[in-house]
Amino acid sequence: MKTPNKSVSSSSRRKSTAALNQQLGIPLGTVEIVSCAIRESGLTYDAYVRTITASALSDLEVWSQSDLERLLLEAQTHRLNPLNREIFMLSNAAGSPPLIAVGVDGWAKIMNAHPQFAGMMFCESPEQSNGIPLWIECEIHRHDRVVPLKVREYFEESRSEHLAWITHPRRMLRHKCMVQCARLAFGLSGICDSDEALRIKESKRTSNSTLHKARHVTPKGIAALAQSLEGVSQSP
Questions:
Q1: Of the candidates 194, 129, 141, 204, the residue with the CA atom closest to the CA atom of residue 163
Q2: Domain that holds residue 168
Q3: Burial class (CB in 10 A: 0-12, 13-18, 19+), 92
Q4: Is the same domain home to 88 and 161?
Q5: What are 121-159's pLDDT values in tens digits?
Q6: 213 is a domain residue
């Protein structure tokens, strides 16, 4: 009985991939993770670039190939589709790379794709403030665990001044609770939701602004000026 020639099979796959790349208009030298994403989408190279620019990268004024590669790597890891904004990028503070965020649909897709996911339930607090529950609890069941995992998120601790929290506070709290529960139930790390990404961006901006002000304190008076110059001359 003859065994299949692995080298011939591998060579055949490479030729098939090269032919498909040419058919889709993928330029020679395109990194494999980008080429793979284009082939899986079934779009031509130009159509893919236009689509992903208008979807997953639409919040960025400018982006680089390394940004696209980071996004596609995370999308591949979690089996998410950036063309549907299941995973996307948000602009970051000046000097920092764009943030990768996973939308609610993306989080739901990750959970539903997990082989041990056995269902999810929500519970709202009976007490309310201005029609909004004080807390929401998420309960996730797994086939391989006897006890379900519960996470409770409080509105006052989770809310922010972002528009979504003002227009849809109950929904945002439910999403926040679901994300935190999913993290613990399935050991998800390295990804965040859009609300967390915006908070990270704002915290960096505030930190950079505070540092900038601290480094540019205007000395008052001759004595203060002399002290400031002395400190500069003694610094390494």
A1: 194
A2: 104-198
A3: middle
A4: no
A5: 999 999 999 999 999 999 999 999 999 999 999 999 999
A6: no
